[in-house]
Design brief:
This protein has 732 residues and is of the alpha+beta class. It is built from 18 helices and 21 strands. A hairpin with a 5-residue loop joins strand 18 and strand 19. The longest helix has 51 residues.
């Protein structure tokens, strides 16, 4: 006994030291998570800090003007999208939007050398293939992909570097014709006026591939390949201006969000301890280590953290809590059937393993696809979510187990410290499935009706924010240096009195008294009224106020990328669930529930006229990840009960029993995640509330669909399949 007590004390000491050490580094990263400006005006992040996005910390704003006098709408749109792809090399959270009819604005967080970026981004970036007559035979738009390659010569041992090019179908056809017509001649591969390769054509190349050689390092290859993948810019650009801009949300929003996070986390830990006793204490200690580690990892991977990124972290914390709840529910059940505490702990972790792994891997697949196919906000969300999922799974399965065993060895061996869960009488969820389905259908129909009415009343299915619709950007030079808090409390209300509320974004220009105010598109009369209101209230010189129309930062191509990424992620999740559960009905039910959740939340956006911006995309993706995890837990229990009951099992009884067994877990997990978001909603500024409100709706919806719909859908599909099988057998 003394030996076990010694092990328990030593184990807890090790964990507390780890929490203290990583907690110190985590706190240090928060302290360093801000932009600093040196004496030359260069903006950079402090070493070791978390990179904060434009909404949280600001960055550099660069405005380009097309050299061509009257660029077409198509060329401007294409250039905007390609620049968005290019600036992701610096930050996935960079924003690109159009200003006026011939300018493009780029906001990049965390830039340390604006001049170097200006030099690179301002180039046309043209990739050309020239024959010996120096005529262009192919262009960058004919290239489908570019990949950096390196290989070692077996005889000399020297390493060579090249960029492997794969052409589009049309480009491959052109390349085959060009090489066939130039056998024995040279075709130069030129990028931005520099000849990188000038090979002699030996024969017609019909495979649709070529390579750029003569590069000196793999890093050079990577950089060139990355730039080529973006393709040639449709327009040549010139720099118009560049400025350092402050955070959109301000320090007040950041500090209140941090306080809300701490309070919410403390409430969750208290809830876990009250409900789950000693296991809840073990989970709370493990979650403290999880929070400290995720702060360190965000800094180590140089992830740019924005509000959508915060959504990914909230989801991962919810999944970390969920994994612990699954385990502790299993432990209570094992104690309830008469097992010892030590045996119950071992069995509880073992039985919970499949549900935890399947739920986390399914969400991780979604995160990977979203990172691969998404852009901007979607990619940033996917990064934080992936880091959080991996860390939460490791924390729940290993750290919590280590702490729980240490507490057991310390002397907490009595069953009263762990709780006992007896088998409950199954609730007849399936008996109410028609009511549940009718409620869901009614909400979705109301949502579509709201979208239709919105189209005629506000000009769109949703109340699109500046990120989607664009608006008016007004530059105002005040007579004093206005703080972010002053702008929020004094300037914004004046602006909202002209715009009748709505989405108002403000940013300071560092080192000046200038403030950028972005609103919905203002009419000429409204612009004049705003200028007068600013002059009357703040003594601003009206002649210095300038205003321009701006496009949304989320282009049509980015919307398409987000939709395509979500569809592909859903397909991959369906395949994974199908393989793991060996039944496509499980996968189909899960996907139908996901579609249901998205439609219900979209209905909330339409009916309540919530602002739809970049955070709306992150909210929807968070809800998808949250809902699929809850569904997996229920399906895992159905799978287990099917094995225990055999082939003659009553499917309705199994589904009802499985949902009942996991019902407490579903409620407790949703409640803990809901608490964190609710505190964020109560304490946050208006922009934070716009983000938290739909997230709360999604949590409720995801829980409802998992408990009330997924089991019913699987049951109806299974019964229908059995019915058809009987009919076929009868026909024979």
């Amino acid at each position: 006994m003394n030996s076990n007590r010694g092990k328990g004390i030593l184990g807890l000491i090790c964990v507390l030291i780890a929490i203290a050490a990583f907690g110190y580094f985590g706190y240090d990263t928060l302290q360093k998570s801000k932009l600093v400006t040196d004496e030359n005006g260069a903006v950079a992040y402090q070493d070791g800090g978390i990179r904060l996005g434009l909404d949280l910390a600001g960055g550099v704003s660069i405005t380009y003007r097309a050299v061509e006098d009257n660029p077409s709408e198509e060329d401007m749109s294409d250039t905007q999208y390609k620049l968005q792809q290019r600036v992701q090399n610096y930050s996935t959270e960079a924003e690109v939007y159009r200003e006026g009819n011939n300018r493009i604005n780029i906001d990049i967080p965390g830039v340390s050398d604006a001049n170097a970026i200006l030099e690179e981004l301002g180039k046309p970036g043209s990739l050309l293939f020239l024959d010996e007559n120096l005529e262009v035979v192919l262009e960058g738009t004919d290239v489908a992909s570019a990949k950096a390659m390196s290989y070692r010569d077996r005889q000399t041992g020297a390493t060579s570097y090249e960029v492997a090019l794969t052409f589009t179908d049309e480009g491959a056809k052109k390349f085959a014709e060009v090489t066939a017509a130039n056998v024995g001649k040279r075709i130069a591969i030129v990028y931005d006026g520099v000849i990188y390769s000038n090979p002699t054509v030996q024969t017609a190349i019909t495979g649709g591939q070529a390579s750029i050689t003569g590069l000196t390092s793999y890093e050079e290859c990577e950089q060139l390949a990355s730039t080529i993948r973006i393709g040639s810019l449709s327009l040549e650009l010139e720099e118009l201006r560049s400025t350092v801009v402050g955070a959109k949300l301000g320090q007040d929003a950041i500090s209140t969000s941090l306080k809300a996070g701490v309070i919410g986390f403390a409430i969750v830990c208290l809830f876990m301890i009250v409900v789950y006793l000693i296991p809840g204490l073990a989970a709370s200690i493990a979650l403290c280590l999880y929070v400290a580690l995720i702060l360190v990892l965000l800094a180590a991977f140089e992830v740019t953290l924005t509000l959508p990124g915060v959504a990914g972290i909230i989801l991962s914390i919810g999944m970390a809590v969920d994994a612990n709840v699954i385990i502790f529910t299993r432990i209570k059940e094992e104690i309830g059937v008469g097992k010892t505490v030590q045996s119950a702990i071992k069995t509880g972790f073992s039985k919970a393993m499949s549900a935890i792994i399947d739920g986390n891997v399914t969400t991780l697949i979604a995160a990977a696809v979203l990172y691969w196919r998404g852009s901007g906000t979607v990619k940033g969300f996917a990064t934080t979510l992936a880091i959080g999922i991996v860390l939460s799974m490791v924390t729940a399965l290993f750290v919590t187990r280590f702490i729980l065993n240490s507490l057991f060895n310390l002397g907490f061996t009595d069953k009263k410290f762990y709780g006992v869960r007896k088998e409950k009488t199954p609730i007849n969820f399936l008996g109410k499935r028609k009511i549940f389905l009718a409620i869901s259908a009614a909400v979705i129909v109301l949502g579509f009706a709201g979208m239709f009415l919105n189209t005629s009343s506000i000009g769109g299915a949703f109340n699109y924010g500046l990120d989607f619709r664009g608006g008016t950007s007004t530059n105002v030079t005040f007579n004093e240096d206005m703080s972010l808090e002053q702008i929020s409390s004094e300037v914004v209300p004046v602006v909202e009195s002209i715009t009748n509320g709505g989405d108002v974004q403000t940013q300071k220009v560092a080192g000046t008294n200038e403030v950028i105010i972005r609103t919905r598109t203002l009419s000429v009369e409204e612009r004049q009224a705003l200028d007068k209101a600013l002059a009357d209230n703040f003594g601003v010189d009206e002649s210095t106020i300038t205003a321009e129309s701006i496009s949304g930062a989320i282009s049509d191509e980015m919307k398409r990328d987000a939709v395509v990424a979500t569809v592909i992620a859903t397909i991959f999740m369906l395949i994974y669930i199908w393989i793991r559960f060996k039944d496509i009905r499980f996968a189909a039910s899960a996907v139908i529930a996901l579609v249901h959740d998205v439609l219900v939340v979209l209905a909330c956006y339409a009916l309540a006229k919530w602002s739809v911006g970049s955070t709306a995309i992150a909210c929807l993706l968070t809800i998808v990840g949250y809902s699929i995890n809850a569904t997996i837990v229920i399906f895992d229990r159905i799978r287990e009960n099917l094995k225990l009951s055999g082939t003659r099992a009553d499917l309705a009884e199994i589904v009802n029993r499985s949902i009942t067994q996991t019902f407490t877990r579903s409620i407790n997990t949703s409640l803990t995640t809901f608490i964190m978001v609710l505190v964020l909603f109560i304490m946050g500024v208006s922009s934070i509330r716009e983000f938290a409100l739909p997230l709360m709706a999604g949590i409720i919806c995801g829980t409802y669909s998992s408990v009330c719909l997924t089991g019913a859908l699987w049951y109806m599909m299974s019964v229908n399949k059995a019915k058809k099988a009987k009919e076929k057998a009868a026909e024979k």
